[in-house]
Amino acid sequence: MINKPKGTMDKLPKEVAKWRYVEEKFRDVCQRFGFNEIRTPLFEYTKLFKRGVGETTDIVQKEMFTVISDANLKKYNAGHFDLDKKGFTLKPEGTAPVVRSFVENKLYADSQPTKLFYITPCYRNENPQAGRLREFHQFGIETFSSISAMTDAEIIAVAMQFFKELGLKDLKLKINSVGCKECRPVYNQKLKEYIEPKLDHFCDTCQGRYDTNPLRILDCKIDSCQEELITVPIITDNLCDNCQTHFNELKKSLEAFSIEYEIDHKIVRGLDYYTKTAFEIISENIGSQSTVCGGGRYDGLVQEVGGPEIPGVGFGMGIERLIMTLEGENVPFPEDNTLDVFIITLGEESKYEGLKIANELRKNGISSDFDHIDRSLKAQMRYADKMNVKFTIILGENEIKNSSVNIKNMITGVQTEANINDISKRITELLGGK
Ligand code: ATP
Ligand code: MG
Q1: Structure pTM?
Q2: Test site for ligand 1: of 125, 168, 291, 323, most ligand atoms within 8 A of the Cβ
Q3: Highest mean pLDDT out of 18-22, 80-84, 217-221
Q4: By residue range, what is the domain housing residue 44?
Q5: Which residue in 9, 51, 213, 250 has the fewest CB atoms around it within 10 Å?
Q6: Residue range 77-83: average pLDDT?
Q7: Are residues 323 and 409 in the same domain?
Q8: Calpha distance 353→331 (Å, rounded)
Q9: For residues 267 and 234, what is the distance between their CA atoms, to the nearest angstrom?
């Protein structure tokens, strides 16, 4: 017996029905907002993520799955393969690959803005727990070429509309601005001056971040670190005029979209490329891994991966956490797809006749099945009942001789007589002419 790797999930048919439901809903909402789907490879050059996600992030420092072919592994062991230059990494997030594709395919040469969405698996070598997996999935969207805060608000509006249409209620939107390359260094300096005298009161991770990524100290989850930050200078009090105006316009645009928000000065996102807007959408009922959606603006990223100076803004949403939130709020999923027709057969000859009828029904868009494992009449009926099929047809020697069957509605019990050659037509009528 070989088990699935730790931190991965099998999605059995019942679960897949939920996934397809949220995926279809996401596609539908994105298309209504004018976004088009993009699909990028499962793996990219490692250097894309090092550059595009950032050397100081948790993802690049400790969570990436870097893969190597057997042939290259031999070369690598012999010291002849440069992993930094030629290595591949399974995508840990969706934004960097989309930006790479935007640049490589020169999508910026088309009419702008470019509005893209994706549905993708992601891979991170984390400690698996509820809502934190090694293989997980993301919905994401990105808009390129607009600096307007209305675009940031529209990104948030897509997520909020999607949640609303799924029937979610207990979600909170938290927004912040992390400034730009002009004002953030000034704030970082202030932050470091505030932290420096009590640096040894902070956890090891925060101490490590003091030099490399001080902003990340703000979102440390450890209580004792947060206690040290009670009187920390607030980033939105330290923005340059440009970022301040942008933040004000974001708030105004959210209000125009009728979206409620809370300002949270501790939302900084883990990724280096964020500028100005940073936001998170938090679920109140899925425990500690409560961030369902996170995103923001990344005006420096396109250039960072070798493209022109083009701004971008987007979000990534964890699908596993989304489904946990839906289950946590007892939001109903649509009914499972059940078979339209099950053909109960009696005797050798009727089996072949049953197969023919099922095949005919299937060709006409009606889902149907027949007994595959030689069950008794009673067992076939029990099976049809258990499978919640909509209609059953009993097919024996008499029915074949008379070319006539009874179609039984399994919910109402009502039986309808039909000529064997008309079954497809009659079932279509009974199903409401689908
Ligand atoms: P966290 O702080 O929870 O680690 P993050 O900042 O690493 O999140 P992002 O990189 O912004 O997360 O990813 C966007 C979304 O993807 C998250 O809000 C979350 O819903 C989901 N996500 C991230 N990591 C995982 C994981 N290991 N397992 C399941 N979902 C995840
Ligand atoms: Mg993380």
Answers
A1: 0.93
A2: 291
A3: 18-22
A4: 13-183+239-328
A5: 9
A6: 94
A7: no
A8: 43
A9: 11
